[in-house]
Amino acid sequence: MHIATWNVNGIRAREAQFCEWLKAHAPDVVCIQEIKASADQLPASVKQLDDYWAYWHESSKGYSGVALFMRKSRFESQPVFCHPAFDMESRLVEGVFDNTRFASVYMPNGGKDYAAKIAFYQAMVEHVREVHARGERLVICGDVNIALTDKDVHPSQQKADVIGQRPEERVLFQQLLDLGLVDTTRVVRPDDDRFFTWWPYWKEARKRNIGWRIDGIYTSTSLGWRVTSADVLAEFGTSDHAPLHVRFEA
Questions:
Q1: Partners of residue 201 on adjacent β-strands
Q2: b/e for 135-151, b at 16 or more Cβ within 10 A?
Q3: Are 86 and 127 in contact (CB under 8 A)?
Q4: What 3-state DSSP class applies to 13?
Q5: pLDDT of amino acid 177
Q6: Which of 67, 104, 118, 181 could form a disulfide with 218 if both were Cys (CB 3.0 to 4.6 A apart)?
Q7: Boundaries of every domain in the chain
Q8: Residue 228 has pLDDT above 80, yes or no
Q9: What percent of the chain has pLDDT above 90?
Q10: Phi, psi of 166 (to 5 degrees)
């Protein structure tokens, strides 16, 4: 199983890059975030994905929005696409196949409404608890907007009072993982303190690898999948995030 996630920071701006990426790598599950487009604004090229069951959870306000694609050769029947009741601003879509929920999520940044970010995370914790209580399994992919530990932030950017690194945020994120989720990147890169997925646009931060790890793929331990690799395409695309690819021996 090959799963990839990418915050494209605007699908219209990244249309050609998205198509190039998808053609070159062809993951089994593709999750993208911040599409920043309504249904009538989506480019025709990204709608014509014949190899995938696709769901665009588009945004009508010019920001946010997520999408989820599941390869037909891997998933022989169309998944059931849905959204939890707490979803807001088109931030979360799930595709249910058999007993597994695949989710593309764009957690709130919190810069403009920190309380809304905390509330969304709290709702997500309850959602994961309920899904696991029903005996279902989860694969959560996307931009989580929290660096779990200092190891996930370049030393020059580590500040405990900055949103995305605050102690109460990290506690919430850890609560989520403690409900039976695996941070797949850390399975194969447990000590890599320069594995980042987001870089600010200033001062050649990306070229110098001054970034944060705030994108991830998290799977229920009950899946029993063995993670074989986790790679970030740090030099690909013009978004401030890079695509993250995780492969499993499922």
A1: none
A2: eebbbbbbbbbbbbeeb
A3: yes
A4: coil
A5: 98
A6: 181
A7: 2-249
A8: yes
A9: 96
A10: -65, 145
Distance of CA 107 to CAs 29, 50, 143, 155, Å?
Answer: 19, 29, 6, 24
Strands 137-143 vs 181-183: parallel, antiparallel or unpaired: unpaired
Q: Are strands 244-249 and 29-33 parallel, antiparallel or unpaired?
A: unpaired
Which segments of 166-220 are extended strands (E)? 181-183, 215-220
Q: Which CATH superfamily is domain 2-249 in?
A: Endonuclease/exonuclease/phosphatase (3.60.10.10)
pLDDT in tens, 135-148: 999 999 999 999 99
CB atoms within 10 A of CB 250: 14
Residues listed for the chain = 250
Distances 77 to 22, 96, 98, 141 between C-alpha atoms, Å: 21, 11, 10, 21
Tokens 């102690």, residue located: 167
The terminus-to-terminus CA distance of the chain in angstroms comes to 6
Rounded distance, CA 230 to CA 215, Å? 12
Residue 93 identity: V
What is the predicted pLDDT for the residue at 203? 85
239: buried, middle or exposed (CB in 10 Å: 19+, 13-18, 0-12)? buried
pLDDT higher than threshold 90 for residue 48: no
CA distances to 21, 93, 119, 231 from 2, in Å:
14, 19, 31, 11
Confidence of residue 7 (pLDDT cuts 50, 70, 90): very high
Q: DSSP string of 42-67?
A: S-HHHH--TTEEEEEE--SSSS--EE
Q: Locate 108 and state its tokens.
A: 């709130």
